[in-house]
């Protein structure tokens, strides 16, 4: 690559981010076309994907070298000290170039080759089939139908081709409504609740200004409420704070006037916009990056960042949706400004509360594919995949994942997947390694032929499914059909495993999760063995009709039983090694935990002071 | 005094509300000498409901019309509401509860009357005498002896009969050293760390006073400690007060060790919160946890403002400092604050838990609590007289022991496989420390316990907890012996509010309890499937 001037620098120091005594590891830094690689003296490798780099900063020269601080989108922060300024400068410049690409074609996904042939690649992309998903929900049906209005992306460029609308909404109504909605994003079906016959619909804000009306739009909303045979009124949820929505009226946009629409109940839920969210996360990360952070500074930082308040607001909005459908049997229409950020958050979380399918591994992929990817959440802009407007970057999807994490914490048995799954997905919305999250809408993805040129993430996650299973998941429990989370403030906790995922020393030293997972697997294996042996015994019993069971015949069962053999070595290997593997981290060393200030006290007293003390003592004796 | 004098009314019809989750209970309410009973009618399916009056922390009564409401806030942080028929009955019952729950006499307290089936008096009291621990120390080193200088509690009223001291120091020297330490708490061995050959000691502050007095025997004792440890060992004195507070203590006769007087020893100051500020921190945290309506910002600012987690962090990191001093620096550590009965014990007991795998077993932990808290003279009766709800002006109350339990819980969260006991045991210890049918946490010292004949006339909590039916509650199913030291992270991001305790009665416990049940199930399934292999091959001998 033309951007790489230096491929290898030796004697680079990697500083411990939280150490107050500047503890460091020395090693070699390599720069490849896709990754930055640091190998320390213990041969431990730290890989950093260029696309993960959010910012690179060169600090003022120090006596030991030139400091280089790299902040990543997956919340890794590394602090190198490069001995020669020249090298540091080269790396700095290369990384600046490599981490900010101007064209999609320069992203990793276009060079990433998992050695699949074309049909495998295609099958990967077909793994998630949204038409199938709408069928699962129960549409089309007598009230809802597939509309071909947007087949050529003529009405709305940021919507998918296939949209579901009320059967009684004719094409002119749809077209009329779309002209009255910001970016043409007219009300369409997001989730259909089969039992309640109620729907979650989504759109963008109406172009109502102070007084404008649109009969078609009013008709379309009426059609949605009529599509619900049980309850005639519907909720219109504007996810913005009221003040923001009102300010939009001055720009010719705004919100629905209850008087103009029949049977609607209008509601603001007050989720802040992408800019507030961006700076909130920024503040949170600043606080948490502080060395020697005190408990009080941590909590006051957590409070002033407002991050958990925002998470709670999103969650509350989703609960509002679920309640409207479950308790009042009412349909809900959700929008924000453009209907691709807050609307995606609230619709997807609402569906997740209502439908246990979305809490499975496959279902969660479908949910993301439906409410985020197909409905045009602007992944590339929000994640800063390309060198673009930094004001468009915002952690909207991260917030969604965090809300899901909070739900997994409150309902440990309701989800088929675990935290690692959420973290892995988060990793890949920024990695640009797969095509799913590239681009800002389906039309763009099709034009750029992502499906031919890149691979889909989902089959790879499914192949690795084992890693992402929640051992406590109980799929049959009716208790978890609809989740009713409690959003009292103290149920919201700081998600350490996300925002400090690379700061190993902050995490628990042993993982309950791994142990249970292994036990579960062993249980299954052993039960299979038992069944296997029992059936063999039976076979032998049947064979020997006279009922004489010779010792030899039974003995021959055991050595032959391959499952038992494997299970035994399985047991020997994993039962203890699991613990041992954990133990290598669990014991950890005190220095890891940065009681270093104390360590300093110990060492301080060592040479000079103590001997002096001894000296004084001798004199007094 | 007869309890009947204090019981104004025998019974009343009432309805009991036990928080948002549990269904209300109707029946006949009855006050007895030690309990509040609610007996549901004969047609009801549920059993008798019983509350130890001692566990009531505060009472609030309200009357309206011809009925009244009593709100009971319990020491285990539960809040109960009783709706009672009849104004007179309400007031009488409230007065009875008030009088009976605040009785101060130890020997009329419930443990002296409690005679549960299946337990024998005197059981488990003999589990953890000082001799027991000394045997272990004696196997590891010869430098220490068991002294019975305090046989009749005259040298130090808050120490047990026998203490472990340097072999080189005789009993007369101990007595002199005791006179130089507040409350007679001369330095004694708390823990011997065999791998490094160093020791952890505890004491109270030296009585240096404004004249900077010295005591040759006290100095000699610390010199003997170093001489008996690994060759060349240094010593650190961890003073749990700030250096300023320690200096100020001289004005009232206390103080801290002068550098020159104790060669080889260096002093470190690690101020830990204690006494009233600690109690207030607890009260404010519980208040914050009781408010379900507050905004996120308010909750976070109250969580910060109460400073409880900051105290957890300080306690843990001071214990880590002490443990690190022994394990990494090969130094002997003496811990003391002022009286040596609160934060001192917090530090020494936590340091052992970090270093000593044995103290992380079920039996070892019980021994640790017994040795380092109960026998070491933590004044439980004074400290746990009231919990977070009491309106009474706090005098000696402080949740030092709760802070210890919280720190242990944090260790358990960071090393979920390394403690043989689970959250259930910690919760039980919290409950029983504040109000218990068992005698274990009664009184302030061994001396008082002897006077009240606690050991012969009450049951030991340990015998109660170690019954087979309690095991599932108190054990950690995932435990595997971890022979290493467990160094916790003390960063604020790594510390969590102990929801299981502070929000125990306000959050719906169900999902996490069900999940825990599932963990048990997986573990026992495993034992079962492993155990059932032989039964499959069992037909063999028959052939």
TrEMBL record, chain A:
What SMART domains does the annotation carry?
PTPc_motif (SM00404)
Q: Which residues form the Myotubularin phosphatase domain?
A: 124-499
Per its UniProt record, what InterPro entries does this chain match? MTMR6_PH-GRAM (IPR035998), Myotubularin (IPR030564), Myotubularin-like_Pase_dom (IPR010569), PH-GRAM_MTMR6-9 (IPR048994), PH-like_dom_sf (IPR011993), Prot-tyrosine_phosphatase-like (IPR029021), Tyr_Pase_AS (IPR016130), Tyr_Pase_cat (IPR003595)
SUPFAM superfamilies for this protein: (Phosphotyrosine protein) phosphatases II (SSF52799), PH domain-like (SSF50729)
Q: Which Pfam families match?
A: Myotub-related, PH-GRAM_MTMR6-like
Keywords per UniProt: Coiled coil, Lipid metabolism
- Give the range the annotation lists for the signal sequence: none
Superkingdom in the source lineage: Eukaryota
Extract the Gene3D superfamilies matched here: Pleckstrin-homology domain (PH domain)/Phosphotyrosine-binding domain (PTB)
Look up the coiled coil feature and give its residue ranges.
516-543
Q: Give yes or no: UniProt keyword Lipid metabolism.
A: yes
What family is reported?
A: Belongs to the protein-tyrosine phosphatase family. Non-receptor class myotubularin subfamily.
Please report the name of this protein according to its UniProt entry. Answer: Myotubularin-related protein 6
Organism field: Ceratotherium simum simum
UniProtKB/TrEMBL annotation, chain B:
**Every Myotubularin phosphatase domain range:** 124-502
Coiled-coil spans in chain: none
Give the signal peptide, or none: none
CDD domains registered for this protein in UniProt: PTP-MTMR9
SUPFAM superfamilies according to UniProt: (Phosphotyrosine protein) phosphatases II (SSF52799), PH domain-like (SSF50729)
Q: Which InterPro entries match?
A: Myotubularin, Myotubularin-like_Pase_dom, PH-GRAM_MTMR6-9, PH-like_dom_sf, Prot-tyrosine_phosphatase-like
Question: Sorted alphabetically, which Pfam families does this protein's record hold?
Answer: Myotub-related, PH-GRAM_MTMR6-like
Q: Which family does it belong to?
A: Belongs to the protein-tyrosine phosphatase family. Non-receptor class myotubularin subfamily.
This protein is called what?
Answer: Myotubularin-related protein 9
């Amino acid at each position: 690559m033309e951007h790489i001037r230096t491929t290898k620098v030796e004697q680079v120091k990697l500083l411990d981010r939280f150490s107050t005594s500047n503890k460091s590891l020395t090693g070699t830094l390599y720069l490849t076309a896709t990754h930055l690689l640091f190998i320390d003296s213990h041969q431990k490798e730290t890989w950093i994907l260029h696309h993960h780099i959010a910012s690179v900063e060169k600090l003022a020269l120090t006596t030991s070298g030139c400091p280089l601080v790299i902040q990543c989108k997956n919340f890794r922060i590394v602090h190198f000290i490069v001995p020669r300024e020249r090298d540091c400068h080269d790396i700095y410049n290369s990384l600046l170039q490599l981490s900010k690409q101007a064209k999609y074609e320069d992203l990793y996904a276009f060079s990433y080759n998992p050695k699949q042939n074309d049909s495998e690649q295609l099958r990967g992309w077909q793994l998630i089939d949204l038409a199938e998903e709408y069928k699962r929900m129960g549409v089309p049906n007598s009230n809802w139908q597939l509309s071909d209005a947007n087949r050529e992306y003529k009405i709305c460029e940021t919507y998918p081709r296939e949209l579901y609308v009320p059967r009684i909404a004719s094409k002119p109504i749809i077209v009329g409504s779309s002209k009255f909605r910001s970016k043409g994003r007219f009300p369409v079906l997001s989730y259909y609740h089969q039992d309640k016959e109620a729907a979650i619909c989504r759109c963008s804000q109406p172009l109502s200004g102070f007084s404008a009306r649109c009969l078609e739009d009013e008709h379309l909303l009426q059609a949605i409420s009529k599509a619900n045979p049980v309850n005639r009124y519907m909720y219109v949820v504007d996810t913005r704070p009221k003040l923001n929505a009102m300010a939009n009226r001055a720009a010719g946009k705004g919100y629905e006037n209850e008087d103009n629409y029949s049977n609607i109940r209008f509601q603001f839920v007050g989720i802040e916009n992408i800019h507030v969210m961006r700076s909130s996360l920024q503040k949170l990360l600043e606080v948490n990056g502080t060395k020697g952070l005190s408990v009080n500074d941590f909590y006051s930082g957590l409070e002033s960042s407002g991050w958990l308040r925002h998470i709670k607001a999103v969650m509350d909005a989703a609960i509002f949706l679920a309640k409207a459908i479950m308790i009042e049997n009412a349909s809900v229409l959700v929008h924000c400004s453009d209907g691709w950020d807050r609307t995606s958050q609230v619709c997807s979380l609402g569906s997740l509360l209502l439908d246990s399918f979305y809490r499975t591994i496959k279902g969660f992929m479908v949910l993301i594919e439906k409410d985020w990817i197909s409905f045009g959440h602007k992944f590339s802009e929000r994640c800063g995949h390309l060198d673009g407007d930094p004001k468009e970057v915002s952690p909207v999807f991260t917030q969604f994942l965090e809300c899901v994490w909070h739900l997994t914490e409150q309902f440990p048995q309701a989800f088929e997947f675990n935290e690692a799954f959420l973290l892995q997905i988060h990793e890949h919305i920024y990695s640009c390694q797969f095509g799913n999250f590239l681009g800002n809408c389906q039309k763009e993805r099709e034009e750029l032929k992502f499906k031919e040129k890149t691979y889909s993430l989902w089959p790879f996650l499914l192949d690795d499914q084992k890693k992402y299973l929640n051992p406590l998941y109980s799929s049959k429990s009716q208790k978890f059909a609809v989740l009713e989370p409690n959003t009292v403030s103290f149920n919201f906790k700081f998600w350490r495993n996300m925002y400090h995922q690379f700061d190993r020393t902050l995490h628990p030293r042993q993982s309950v999760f791994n142990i249970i997972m292994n036990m579960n697997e062993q249980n299954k294996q052993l039960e299979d063995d038992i069944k296997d042996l029992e059936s063999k015994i039976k076979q032998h019993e049947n064979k020997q009709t006279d009922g004489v069971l010779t010792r030899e015949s039974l003995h021959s069962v055991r050595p032959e039983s391959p499952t038992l053999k494997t299970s035994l070595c399985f047991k020997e290997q994993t039962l203890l090694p699991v613990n041992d593997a954990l133990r290598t981290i669990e014991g950890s060393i005190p220095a890891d935990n940065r009681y270093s200030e104390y360590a300093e006290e110990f060492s301080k007293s060592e040479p000079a002071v103590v001997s002096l003390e001894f000296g004084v003592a001798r004199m007094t004796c | 005094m007869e309890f009947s004098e204090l019981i104004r009314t025998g019974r009343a019809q009432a309805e009991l509300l036990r928080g948002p989750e549990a269904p209300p209970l109707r029946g006949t309410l009855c006050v007895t000498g030690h309990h509040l009973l609610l007996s549901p009618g004969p047609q009801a399916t549920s059993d008798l409901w019983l509350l130890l009056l001692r566990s009531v922390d505060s009472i609030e009564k309200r009357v309206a019309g011809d009925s009244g409401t009593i709100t009971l806030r319990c020491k285990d942080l539960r809040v109960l509401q009783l709706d009672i028929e009849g104004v007179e009955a309400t007031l009488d019952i409230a007065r009875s509860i008030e009088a009976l729950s605040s009785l101060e006499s130890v020997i009329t307290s419930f443990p002296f009357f409690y005679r549960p089936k299946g337990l024998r008096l005197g059981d488990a009291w003999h589990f953890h005498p000082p001799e027991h621990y000394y045997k272990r120390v004696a196997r590891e080193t010869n430098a220490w002896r068991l002294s019975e200088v305090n046989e009749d509690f005259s040298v130090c009223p808050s120490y047990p009969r026998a203490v472990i001291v340097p072999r080189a120091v005789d009993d007369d020297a101990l007595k002199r050293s005791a006179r130089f330490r507040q409350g007679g708490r001369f330095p004694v061995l708390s823990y011997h760390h065999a791998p490094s050959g160093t020791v952890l000691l505890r004491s109270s502050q030296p009585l240096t006073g404004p004249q900077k007095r010295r005591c040759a025997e006290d100095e000699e004792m610390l010199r003997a400690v170093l001489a008996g440890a690994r060759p060349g060992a240094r010593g650190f004195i961890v003073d749990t007060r700030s250096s300023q507070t320690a200096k100020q203590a001289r004005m009232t006769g206390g103080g801290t060790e002068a550098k020159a007087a104790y060669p080889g020893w260096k002093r470190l100051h690690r101020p830990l919160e204690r006494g009233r500020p600690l109690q207030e921190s607890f009260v404010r945290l519980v208040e914050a946890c009781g408010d379900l309506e507050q905004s996120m910002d308010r909750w976070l600012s109250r969580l910060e403002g109460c400073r409880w987690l900051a105290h957890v962090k300080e306690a843990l990191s001071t214990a880590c400092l002490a443990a690190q001093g022994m394990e990494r620096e090969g130094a002997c550590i003496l811990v003391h604050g002022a009286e040596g009965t609160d934060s001192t014990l917090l530090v020494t007991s936590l340091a052992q838990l970090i270093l000593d795998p044995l103290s992380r077993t079920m039996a070892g932990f019980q021994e640790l609590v017994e040795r380092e808290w109960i026998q070491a003279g933590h004044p439980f009766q004074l400290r746990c007289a009231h919990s977070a709800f009491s309106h009474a002006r706090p005098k000696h109350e402080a949740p030092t022991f709760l802070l210890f339990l919280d720190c242990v819980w944090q260790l358990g969260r960071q090393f979920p496989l390394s403690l043989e006991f689970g959250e259930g045991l910690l919760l039980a210890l919290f409950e029983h420390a504040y109000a218990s049918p068992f005698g274990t946490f009664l009184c302030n010292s061994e001396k008082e316990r002897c006077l009240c004949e606690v050991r012969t006339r009450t049951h030991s909590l340990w015998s109660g907890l170690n019954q087979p039916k309690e095991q599932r509650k108190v054990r950690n199913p995932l435990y595997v012996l971890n022979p290493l030291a467990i160094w916790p992270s003390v960063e604020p991001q790594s510390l969590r509010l102990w929801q299981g305790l502070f929000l125990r009665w306000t959050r719906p416990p169900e999902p996490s309890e069900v999940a825990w049940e599932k963990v048990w199930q997986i573990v026992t399934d495993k034992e079962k499937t492993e155990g059932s292999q032989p039964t499959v091959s069992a037909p063999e001998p028959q052939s």
